[in-house]
Amino acid sequence: MKVKKIPLRKCVVTNEHFEKKQLLRVVKSPEGLVTVDLTGKANGRGAYLSKSAAVIREAKKTKVLERHLETKIPDEVYEALLKLAADE
Predict the structure, then answer these.
(1) CA distance linking residue 67 with residue 71, whole number of Å
(2) C-alpha closest to that of 59 among 41, 38, 85
(3) CATH of the domain at 42
(4) Is residue 1 part of a domain?
């Protein structure tokens, strides 16, 4: 039986590779709207973050998401990420 390949993605803050399910995805749509992608399949440019409040705060402080997505990230996105990280 063939073993199913598990997709790995890299956290933009820690540069560690994780399974896709262990990360949170932030996506910039073609219209320029930045949202948290819960499905992992939203259309647009995506960046991945670890499900850790410390990592999310570090991303906000260093503006690493803004550099990866090439746009301003609203505070609501960071608040939603922190809420999702707290639920884990």
Answers:
(1) 7
(2) 85
(3) 3.30.1230.10
(4) no
Write the pLDDT tens digit of every residue in 3-47.
Answer: 988 889 999 999 999 999 999 999 999 999 999 999 999 999 999
Domain hosting 80: range is 8-87
Q: Residue 80 domain-assigned?
A: yes
User: Is residue 85 helix, strand or coil?
Assistant: helix
Query: What are 54-86's pLDDT values in tens digits?
Result: 999 999 999 999 999 999 999 999 999 999 998
Mapping DSSP onto H, E and C, the string for 36-77 reads EECCCCCCCEEEEEECCHHHHHHHHHHCHHHHHHCCCCCHHH
SS3 14: coil
3-state DSSP call for residue 86?
A: helix
Domain count, the chain: 1
CA 18 to CA 29: how far, in whole Å?
23
